[in-house]
Amino acid sequence: MGRPLYLAFGSMILMYRAQVSIIGAGPIGSYLSKKLAQKGIGTVLIDRKNTVGKYACSGLISKRITSFVRMNGAFLEHKIDGAVFHSPDNSFTLRRNTTQAYVVDRPLFDKHLFSEAVRAGAKTFLGAPVEKICVLKDAVECTAGQEKITSKMVVGCDGACSFLRDHLGFPGKTRLVNGIMSYVDECNSSSLVELYYGKRVAPGFFAWKIPRGKRTEYGLAAKENHLFYFKKFLSSQGVLFEKYYAHPIVFGEQESCKERAILVGDAAAQVKPFSGGGLIYGFISADIAARAIKKAFDKDDFSKEFFQKEYESRWHKKLLSKIRIGGALRGILDSLDNSELDALFGALSEEKKSMEQIGDMDFL
Ligand SMILES: Cc1cc2nc3c(=O)[nH]c(=O)nc-3n(C[C@H](O)[C@H](O)[C@H](O)COP(=O)(O)OP(=O)(O)OC[C@H]3O[C@@H](n4cnc5c(N)ncnc54)[C@H](O)[C@@H]3O)c2cc1C
Known about the structure:
The protein is of the alpha/beta class. The chain has one domain (about 5-360): 3-Layer(bba) Sandwich (FAD/NAD(P)-binding domain), CATH 3.50.50. Helix content is about 30%, strand content about 30%. The chain contains eight helices and 21 strands. The protein has helices at about 25-40, 105-120, 165-170, 225-235, 280-300, 305-335, 340-350, 350-360, and strands at about 5-10, 15, 20-25, 45, 60, 75-80, 80-85, 90-95, 100-105, 125, 130-135, 140-145, 145-150, 155, 170-185, 190-195, 205-210, 215-220, 245-255, 255-260, 260-265. The strands form four sheets. The protein has a seven-stranded mixed sheet with strand order 8-7-16-17-18-15-19, sandwiched between helices. It has a six-stranded mixed sheet with strand order 10-4-3-14-21-20. Strand 12 and strand 13 (about 145-150) form a beta hairpin. The longest helix is centred in the C-terminal third of the chain and has 32 residues, at about 305-335. The model has no long low-confidence stretch (mean pLDDT about 95).
């Protein structure tokens, strides 16, 4: 970050000013920061980590991503045109003859978005978590390590376990499952991801195998004992692994606005409950947030009501019904025993043709 505006020598606190403080330099925070810079709004991007880049994410993103981020050989690993769905004793394949999704290297993807934000003019402050947030009458103060950043408003892009959300007490009805994954040096040029369902494989979610060209990823999420089920799944696939990455996935409905504060991305549970993917919903919502924040500066209105009207109601209109339907379907799938799952997958395979025509991995 640039030089502090002033130093409070007694306590050795360094003071900065920005128009907007964004907590979290993940993909959604960096993207939002760039969008705001392009609208002439100065941001400071704060992250607790010294280096940006999340490892616990498959980076499987629908082709809709190209509306937000230009695909780039620096982070693009592989292309996908379908999926094989496995129940314990049944399976069916859905595929199209064109690319449906991209597999990106998540740490490199995050770094790319972060450098785009910096190039657009974002100031950054890395290496200390935001530990205190004070919402004042006409400003917000965020304290991270020895730094105090004062801005007109704060945005929580700080992920599934958002500090801003918990610290300011945003109400919500959400739950977490634990995702876990590992890469294996196994060349895999298939264009199909494989998804495995069943209470004995991954209770409350599913397991996956993702071809990544020069390597293969195995992963799963489960509501409990994720490491136990992960080891069991890899052993059933005859795979040995060394290193694994784990992180929570958040689902449900989360309020996203308060006076001078909004949540975007995983922090606002903008996640597809059916698959756990949060990138597309996060980018869609970040575009809406950028427009709302620009308007807030134009009108000098940072009230909760303003953000509810200009941000929350707009992202709800696009995503909330999908989140609710996805959540209901997730609940139905979770309740089925193995034979019911087999019967369902048998019935779905009969509808393969129509699902291939109308299916959309972002909007079920
Ligand atoms: C195993 C797994 C696989 C997944 N696979 C996919 C997939 O294939 N496709 C997909 O679309 N989604 C996937 N997801 C979900 C996806 O990773 C998230 O939706 C996405 O990372 C959300 O981005 P974000 O920027 O909102 O949050 P994050 O990427 O979580 O970034 C949050 C940032 O905030 C920072 N932070 C947190 N607290 C503080 C604090 N107090 N102070 C400062 N900084 C802080 C963190 O260090 C982090 O950099 C997967 C998730 C998991 C766990």
